Amino acid sequence: MLKFESESNTQQTAAAVSAAKPQYLATEPRSFFMTVRDIGFWIRSSRADARMSRERHEHGAAAAFDGLYSRSADPYGAELPQYRYQQRKYDSLLSMLPQRRFQSVLDIGCGRGAFTRKLAPYSAEILGTDISEVAIAQARMLSKSHPNIQYSSAPMLEAPATEQRFDLIVLADTLYYTEAPSAERFETISHNIGSRLVPGGLLLLVNHYFFGIDPASRATRMTHDIFRANPELTCVAEHRRAFFLATLLQRPQM
Ligand SMILES: C[S@@+](CC[C@H](N)C(=O)[O-])C[C@H]1O[C@@H](n2cnc3c(N)ncnc32)[C@H](O)[C@@H]1O
User: How many whole angstroms from 24 Cα to the centroid of ligand 1?
Assistant: First the structure.
């Protein structure tokens, strides 16, 4: 178990408080996440998802995401300078991770690799994977100055495409695109991903979370609870922020 256990955004366990000073990869941003301009970020993302969702029915998910990334550089606005939301969010996610050098990191649904590159300074080797070949081609171009990042469009969510084990797996803003989502499907995904962690390895799961009562937030809560109920994983931290839920899980040491 990690020494820095903190179970919610409001409560820290007595163990965490009395443990040696926790060290994380970043300091959590203190100021409010969004500016008025960030409303444009949400509109952009919603439009991207609406169009992708229509195209997915006709052409399948891979082609729909390929179309999205072909039509627009940075369709989710992750690195557009006029929006600060996503960069703040990435800093917030880094602030959940313990300060250490990860040996082998897997970023599933990495898109153009915006968060993958944030992890590069803390990792020996990173593999970013995405269902979209177009996103992967763009991620490779954008990551030329990071020789420790490899990219692949091999499927990683369900059927393990590699025997490799990782000490950090990131699954950020990807699970809600799962086709035919159901509790059983998420249990299978949780098991597949958990089994690819080394003992002591971490899984960072992130999904949109708004006000707790809307359908998207309820779906996120249910999905994270399924991962938390996986007996192969232990929850070590959970942050509920505007507007996401991030859960850090660990495969226990043998
Ligand atoms: C909103 S983007 C998130 C990008 C990145 N994780 C981030 O947080 O910046 C969602 C990504 O998930 C990818 N994706 C959707 N379904 C996937 C699947 N089954 N396997 C791998 N990637 C998938 C999409 O192609 C898209 O690039």
Answer: 25
